[in-house]
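Hi there, hope your week has been kind to you so far. Would you mind checking whether the tokens look sensible for this chain? I owe you a coffee for this, so here goes:
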Amino acid sequence: MVIKNSEKKEAIIEAYISIIVKSGIQKSPIAEIARVTGIATGSVYTYFKSKNELINEAYLYVRNKEFEYVLSDDMWQKSTKEQFRQLFGGLITFFYNNPVYFEFSDRFAEGPEITAESRKEIEKFTQFTKFIDNAKKDLNIKDKSSTELLFFLFGFVSSSSRYLFKENITLTDAILDDLLELAWNGIGLRIL
């Protein structure tokens, strides 16, 4: 029986994310991942049966890192404005502080390699839907489809993050507030 080490598994995932962002899916051989992590090529297969399994694990890994960053136990005791800032401002801040994760999510999270099973495993995503549903119920945001509102907001997060990187802008609270105000004006019934 082979004993798996969670630190090695995480190192493989981190190396894979960096390599795939730099070189793409087709140019990310297992041998390169092994070289970067300092383990034998065969050892990578101890943790992942295939590159397809590895990209799906990387997807789950990055998504969970995002959720760990933006969610908190006391979130639902906060005002709609504070929840909005925590969720969507938190995602922008997370990606700003983790550009490789942003690039990975931006380029690969919606790709055909990510299985339906992996997408379903991200149950914490329902927290974003819960925010939208609560905000609509409290008449704080427009009564539009939750799916449409979420696509708009996640598009906003992606575009804002890309803008900050492309223009080499330092993310400050004032800039984040300006960005969030623009998004809120797109969905809100009341000015924050």
About this structure: The chain has two domains: 1-48, 59-187.
